[in-house]
Amino acid sequence: MYNLAQRVFAEFAGTFAFVFIAAGVICSDDFLRQQSQHPLGVLGIALAQGLIYGVMVTSVHHISGGHLNPAVTVGFWVTRKLSTLDALLYTVAQLAGSVLAALALSAILAESIWRPVGLGSPMLAADFTRMHGMLLEGLLTFILVFVFFATIGDPNGATPRNMGLAVGFTVAVGALFGNPFTGACMNPAMPFGPALAAHHWTNQGTYWVGPLMGGILGAWVYSSAFMQRS
């Protein structure tokens, strides 16, 4: 059994790795485009973000549960699978990991590389309103948290071998659909660090309200409809 400090640090480290790669690959894609080379594109970005999330969830699941996402954490909290103190500390650790990852990117990459994309900060597409953004982010996060509960949160769910693969692929397919419209964050920690480091707060509320509401709904639906009570 891991203690609280170890669990909180696992959430910090896992979220750091996720945001470092997830935001960094957006910078890489834009850099390749600036150099008139073949960019990674939506498929490359989606695969990188899904793979790093799945890998890190699998890596720290046995320590902290592998949330790496405040929307997942709030889902566990509202379904009483996580205490209030743990939920608060997990969220703070996730946000801190995101901030440190963004600061690391800004220190490693030249500003001319990361500034055009705001260190990977998401942006709404033209004619895509904040309400549309919240709805899309909310529904994508609903699916992610539903899958998380079905594979990781449910003792009768998928085997440990499959759990990281399932949530990683969910992030990837969500990004394939949502990236052109909202950036497909599905995770309030993902835009927070880059926004803080790059001072790019445009539409930040969209990436909090939508995913948190979607996370609560996804957790509640799975827990109410399918979770077996002991």
Count of runs of 4 or more consecutive helical residues: 9
Give start-end ranges of low-pLDDT stretches.
none
CATH topology: Glycerol uptake facilitator protein
CATH architecture: Up-down Bundle
Described by the principal axes of the CA atoms, the overall outline is globular
Number of strands: 0
The level of helicity is over 70%
Largest sheet: none
pLDDT averaged residue by residue: 94
> How does the helix and strand content classify structurally?
mainly alpha
Q: Give me the Rg, rounded.
A: 17 Å
Termini gap: 22 Å
Can you summarize this structure?
The protein has 230 residues and is mainly alpha-helical.
Secondary structure layout plus pairing:
Elements: H1 4-34, H2 41-64, H3 70-78, H4 84-108, H5 111-114, H6 130-153, H7 160-182, H8 189-198, H9 206-225
Task: Provide an overview of this structure.
By secondary structure, this protein is mostly helical. The longest helix is centred in the first third of the chain and has 31 residues, at 4-34. The protein has one domain: Glycerol uptake facilitator protein. Helices cover 74% and strands 0% of the residues. The radius of gyration is 17 Å and the shape is globular. The chain has helices at 4-34, 41-64, 70-78, 84-108, 111-114, 130-153, 160-182, 189-198, 206-225.
Question: Which short descriptors sum up this protein?
Answer:
230 residues; mainly alpha; Glycerol uptake facilitator protein; 74% helix; globular
